[in-house]
Amino acid sequence: xxxxxxxxxxPLGLWALFEAIAAALWLSSGRIFYLFNFSYIGACLALxxxxxxxxxxxxxxAVQFAVGLYMLGYLGVLSxxxxxxxxxxxxxxxxxxxxxxxxxxxxxxxxPLLFGRGWCGYxxxxxxxxxxxxxxxxxxxxxxIGFLRYFVFAASLLFVGxxxxxxxxxxxxxxxxxxxxxxxxxxxxxxxxxxxxxxxRAFCKYLCPITVFLKPASYFSLLRIxxxxxxxxxxxxxxxxxPMDVDMTDNSRKRINGTxxxxxxxxxxxxxxxxxxx
Length: 278
What we know:
Structural class: mainly alpha
Number of helices: 14
Number of strands: 2
Oligomer: single chain
Largest sheet: 2 strands, antiparallel
């Protein structure tokens, strides 16, 4: 799956990174919640990556649910935090760098510079459900409708901006309801697109507004799947199994759909000559 040193170094590195973030936010803010929050997420990701490297079945899915349900259920529903992109805009307009703003700064803006779109593969609460649908490998060619994500992105910004510009009362209650409704719409759209296009990750490719942040930073990602050209036999198995249509045989940063890689490592597992690795 991954080179032997990476089986330990990558999980330990992830754990250490999130522990450092947890400690820094706790000490700077005085809120012990951040110590728990990022320690929990980091531990789940590190354990999941380690188990996946040991070929434990459904390790990645388990991490998705461990992190996704925590953020959706505990932070979102029980704690009343809008962890969707609307929560990020709300924090910015409110001038409060907490909760959703910190989450986006760490996981969606700075994080991709290190681990690309690993968040989409291991922690997204929308993808955790979509990955259970019956189309793990896309059927048919990729559609040229990715521009739709920018309309969703703009709509979220206009919605939250309008709440402030029009001085709408009860904004926090509105934002909480928008979190519940937004998630229901995301799941609905994701399931409909998956069955219509034969692709579990169609929502991620065409509608998800978070990718507007993720894609540019992912281009410079430190952690990437690489291909050993001497071992590669050009069988095409990696391209056929990739849920995001990435051409992993090309090591350049300009490879086809290179900013879409979610580090699911399915291509690595499918490679018959073990040419692919982290």
